[in-house]
Amino acid sequence: MVTRMAPESHAAPAGGPPNGWKARLSGTRFTLLEHVGATGSTNSDLVARAGGADDGTVLVTDHQTAGRGRLGRTWDAPPGTNLLVSVLVRPDWPPEAHPLVTPALAVAVVDALAGMGVPTAVKWPNDLVVEDGLALGKVAGILAEYVVGPPEAVVVGLGLNLAWPAAEDDAPPGATSLRACGHTVNRWDLLAVVLAGFDTRLDDLAAAAGPERLREAHLGRSATVGRRVRADTPTGPVEGTAVDISADGSLLVRPDGAANSLVPVAAGDVTHLKSA
């Protein structure tokens, strides 16, 4: 899905991080920051460099011309309006934990925004939403990509709508921005807090009890669990109530009319439905 450019009046100040910003990430893996004015896709750039890039490389851009989401979806927002960042990490966790990278970042973003007074939640599998009136408005999406290597890597990108779209903009259905919801957030302050939290969550992936800590954190920040949903899975749609999240990150859905059955959904789009 490609949307038209919104007016430049929505743009936030562009440019690199302020002096001293990197010091806020001292002690984390995210100390190698690159900032570019524009690129096609920060995820694609880091995937292409995965053979030689250092662990913890962070790439931020003011403008993406070929940003990608799940299922090949694309979009285009005005320069300087949103937080557009990808990071490359070298896994020190077992392969079965790779799917947990997405919720690890999602939880870190929710926690960072909560500390700035912005209430958000995770819409399974990879979106962040805010309450916009009576509806849930999407403000962010996450895309993780595994690179086999050698050496292996995981590239994970975040697109977070800070100042675009506004209500009058031609944007993807259901999309909103923090500014449209009444919140003004500095992208560099937010990014520093997000990366520090993400570093801690990534450490959990290699710890014995870490995946369960992440599961509980994800569950407590979920906008999906407890709702009626339709999950469009590779084997067909499932409608029912989302009741839990498993240790491997799958959404557990109790199908309508099947009180004693749970369907694990490991991948696929999920739509929130009105209660029956």
The string of secondary-structure elements, in order, is EHEEEEHEEEEHHEEEEE
Number of helices: 4
Q: Point out poorly predicted stretches.
A: 1-12
Distance between the termini: 30 Å
Largest sheet: 7 strands, mixed
Helical amount: 10-25%
Radius of gyration: 18 Å
Strand order of the largest sheet: 1-2-5-9-8-7-6
Shape: globular
The helix-and-strand class reads: alpha+beta
Strand content: 25-35%
Mean pLDDT across the residues is 89
Report the count of strand segments: 14
Describe this structure in words.
This protein is an alpha+beta fold and 276 residues long. The chain contains 4 helices and 14 strands. It has helices at 42-48, 101-115, 187-205, 210-220; strands spanning 32-36, 57-61, 67-68, 74-75, 83-89, 121-123, 127-132, 135-147, 153-160, 228-233, 236-245, 251-255, 263-265, 269-272. The strands form 3 sheets. The chain has a 7-stranded mixed beta sheet, with helices on both faces. A 5-stranded antiparallel beta sheet has the order 13-12-11-10-14. The protein has a two-stranded antiparallel sheet with strand order 3-4. Helix 3 (187-205) crosses helix 4. The radius of gyration is 18 Å and the shape is globular. Residues 1-12 have low confidence and may be disordered.
Task: Compile the SSE list and pairings.
Layout: E1 32-36, H1 42-48, E2 57-61, E3 67-68, E4 74-75, E5 83-89, H2 101-115, E6 121-123, E7 127-132, E8 135-147, E9 153-160, H3 187-205, H4 210-220, E10 228-233, E11 236-245, E12 251-255, E13 263-265, E14 269-272
Parallel strand pairs: 1-2
Antiparallel strand pairs: 2-5, 3-4, 5-9, 6-7, 7-8, 8-9, 10-11, 10-14, 11-12, 12-13
Helix pairs in contact: 2-3, 3-4
